[in-house]
Amino acid sequence: MRKKHVDRNAYGIIGLGLFGTALALELVHAGKHVIVLDNDEEKLNGVKEDITSAHLVSAITAEVLQDSGISDCGTVVIAIGRDIESNILATLTVKEVGVPRVISKAMSDAHGRVLEKIGAEIILPERDSALRLSRSLLTLRTLDFLELENDISITEVPLPPAFAGKTIGEMDFRTSFHLNIIAITREEHTFIEFDSSFTFQTGDELVVIGKNEDVSRFMKTKDSM
Q1: Single residue among 123, 158, 193 that ends a domain in this structure
Q2: Which of 4, 105, 201, 216 is deepest in the core (most CB within 10 A)?
Q3: CA 156, 37, 120, 80 torsion: positive or negative?
């Protein structure tokens, strides 16, 4: 039997919510080959200028994974959120086509246990951003809680005081700092869904994804304000 070809430099992202989109764009900007699948044409249109391998699909099947090229990726992230059944089925199908590393977004501890039994690594954005990332502030203030590449981090940093009262759109975060915000922690609440009109407040913590050098540059900017 011919050995399956695996491209370790290729990443598949299934589901273009806030987390999936930010992750896909960061990997593209890091020079990686990224293939994305989603059932929402509007979301795909939003990334088509950056991601050429974007496919509109109605279901995740072995044939879809093979035709799109995702079955040959070294790592696939299932970023489907609220539809737990679709998330589990997609995870199972990706494992069955032989992808070496499968990372799946879990919505609860019980959901995560199911995914782990299938053989996937799990991420719990709501819990991790509020608990694991906040605990990391007591040490290095940075945590590679999803290490896809050595030069890409997911990090929680305090909001610079000068940005309080401004919206995400006014800050033009992506252009100014080359980072994407994937969550915002405010006191005991973590926001994972927001748009450009979201207004920052003093004391907010930003969970950002980007290259380590850009995270470091942003933190130095924060410290100099």
Answers
A1: 123
A2: 105
A3: positive
